[in-house]
From TrEMBL:
UniProt organism field: Flagellimonas hadalis
Coiled coil: none
Keywords: Lipoprotein
Pfam families in the cross-refs: SusD-like_2 (PF12771)
UniProt keyword Transferase present: no
Entries under InterPro entries matching the protein: SusD-like_2, TPR-like_helical_dom_sf
PROSITE patterns hit by this protein: PROKAR_LIPOPROTEIN (PS51257)
Protein name stated in the entry: SusD/RagB family nutrient-binding outer membrane lipoprotein
Superkingdom classification of source: Bacteria
Matching SUPFAM superfamilies: TPR-like (SSF48452)
């Protein structure tokens, strides 16, 4: 099915594409044009891939840090000197939401462009890269629909349809599954996308051109969607989907996870990282801390990921003066002290008249509670709380390894299998504890935790043991591990909380306005983002609310009801 055609030099000289991979260095200096055997769709693959998991800095700040990472409950704003309280994102803001919506809705154009090239009859037809395009479409739409809910799907990108209808999550999930099945059938037993220039190889940022790993990626995504949809109102496909996925190869310890390494050559205005916000906004205003829910969960269970997820605090002497202007002074100081207690911190408190001094030695791990409001920010001192590790905040251009963008992990594959076994689902086989342990080990592997440290954790910590307890307690432990494994993948971590209700402390929301930002949600946990203002330009938008519910952050999506 593959074929090559002579195409215009301009097709290969897109400025966007040429700026996004080192593979184009030689091409960019060749002034003699291209021969047919030098042209391949793989040169358009890289751009399509990284823009889904590493978009430019504008959405990386607004869609990721302000929204998904906030709601995931792993990163926090709100310390004294930060530009925002940790309520940012919980109170609807048109500009921030529009940025998130514009990025996700606009990504379809990138995906469609690549798909049109490689599909049957396309300028750069390649059936195996077309299979890749179908799988990327599934990854994209899963993220898109779980962020907003109903979105255009069946009519999106169809020639001649300028105002596509909005489809339900049930329809979208079924469509994704059908695409994944088609992609896996196309791949079959093939291992590469072609020979010579047609081998995607290093231009494939996800799987390095390994089609069998792509097939496992597709099947693991199929399992994720089936498990997420299971039990939702009107679900008529999840059980069969899960059974089919469990009967086929999934991501495992042999294949490893699908992650995307950071490219430090690409400019932050094409592909960003956390470090681009961390280092380039100046001072501490744009920086963030790690949440107490994450730090406490890691610390309480002697999790070896603690030191690679976060840094210990700087510590110091922190003075609070009751000058009579804050009627809630003591309540807020007590909250800070209670946070230290919950972290098991070493500290001393001295009260001298109107002054309260808290001495906190450095070197400890202390997380900041989520959703603290602007009034308590003066009490939340920067050096008292743990920051993300340098692996997370690594600045681009320094040529030092940073965290990889998570596409889909072998850890999640094992966790989902363990959950299926515990629930007695059709097709689920194996020992739940063994699957759970393998998942933990795979999750730690991504962050460079040694096998020995992982094995010790699995052998000694109750958090890694699902051989005892009630079914609900076992499922809670799996949910926690899925949430921990999604660190830096805020969209998936947020979906885990909405789907499972864990971590329960996060899912419960907040109630105390003296401490927390109740926001537009009045303290409830956010279930979705509101549509961007451009969505209303589509006349079919009016059909969404009667089906899905009000266009507010608190409306539960189909999979989470």
């Amino acid at each position: 099915m593959r074929k090559q055609k002579n195409i215009l030099l301009g097709l290969m000289c897109s400025a966007t594409i040429l700026s996004c991979t080192k593979s184009f260095d030689e091409i960019n200096t060749d002034q003699n044009g291209f021969l047919s055997d030098e042209v391949s769709a793989k040169f358009f693959l890289t751009d399509t891939q990284y823009k889904l998991y590493s978009p430019d800095r504008f959405p990386y700040w607004r869609a990721h840090l302000i929204h998904a990472d906030r709601f995931a409950g792993q990163f926090t704003f709100g310390f004294n000197g930060c530009w925002w309280s940790d309520g940012l994102g919980y109170t609807y803001d048109t500009g921030y939401t529009d940025a998130a919506y514009g990025w996700l809705a606009g990504y379809l154009g990138n995906l469609k462009g690549f798909t049109d090239f490689v599909q049957e009859g396309g300028e750069l037809e390649n059936e195996y890269m077309y299979a890749m395009a179908l799988i990327m479409k599934g990854l994209y739409y899963q993220m898109y629909t779980e962020t907003f809910g109903m979105v255009p799907y069946t009519e999106a990108g169809v020639e001649g349809i300028l105002t596509p209808k909005y489809d339900t999550q049930q329809v979208i999930y079924k469509g994704i599954i059908a695409d994944l099945d088609e992609a896996m059938a196309i791949i079959g037993s093939e291992e590469r996308t072609g020979l010579g220039v047609d081998d995607a190889g290093p231009n494939d940022l996800y799987c390095g051109g390994d089609l069998q790993k792509w097939k496992k990626l597709a099947n693991t995504l199929k399992l994720r969607i089936g498990m997420r949809a299971l039990g939702a109102d009107g679900d008529d496909f999840a059980a069969a989907t899960i059974s089919e996925a469990l009967a086929a190869p999934l991501l495992d310890d042999a294949s490893g996870s699908v992650v995307m390494e950071k490219d430090f050559v690409i400019d932050q205005w094409a592909a960003a990282a956390y470090g681009d916000v961390w280092h380039n906004f100046g001072g501490t205003g744009s920086k963030w801390t790690v949440s107490n829910i994450l730090i406490n969960m890691l610390q309480d269970n002697n999790d070896p990921r603690l030191s690679v997820y976060a840094n210990p605090i700087v510590g110091g002497s922190f003075v609070y003066v009751n000058d009579g202007t804050d009627p809630n002074f003591q309540t807020r100081v007590d909250f800070v002290i209670a946070t230290l207690d919950r972290a098991g911190a070493d500290y001393t408190v001295t009260v001298n008249g109107t002054e309260t001094t808290i001495e906190v030695p450095g070197g400890q791990y202390i997380g900041l509670p989520t959703r603290v409001n602007g009034d308590i920010m003066p009490y939340i001192r920067y050096d008292m709380f743990s920051l993300p590790s340098e692996m997370v905040t690594q600045q681009k251009g320094s040529q030092v390894d940073a965290y990889p963008e998570i596409v889909l992990t072998s850890a999640e594959s094992y966790f989902l299998q363990a959950e299926a076994v515990l629930n007695g689902l059709q097709g689920a086989t194996g020992d739940a504890q063994d699957l759970f342990a393998k998942g933990i080990k795979e999750a730690m592997k991504i962050w460079g935790v040694s096998d020995g440290d992982a094995d010790t954790y699995i052998a000694t910590e109750a958090a890694a043991d699902i051989t005892v307890g009630t079914l609900d307690e076992k499922l809670e432990k799996i949910a926690h591990q899925r949430w921990l494994a999604s660190y830096t993948d805020g969209f998936e971590a947020w979906a885990v909380v909405r789907d499972t209700g864990y971590p329960a402390e996060l899912a419960a929301g907040v109630t105390d306005p003296v401490i927390y930002e109740l926001g537009t949600l009045n303290g409830a946990y956010p279930q979705r983002l509101r549509y961007g203002s451009g969505a209303q330009d589509n006349p079919n938008f009016s059909a969404v609310e009667p089906v899905q519910g009000a266009n507010v952050q608190g409306t539960k999506l189909w999979f989470a009801k």
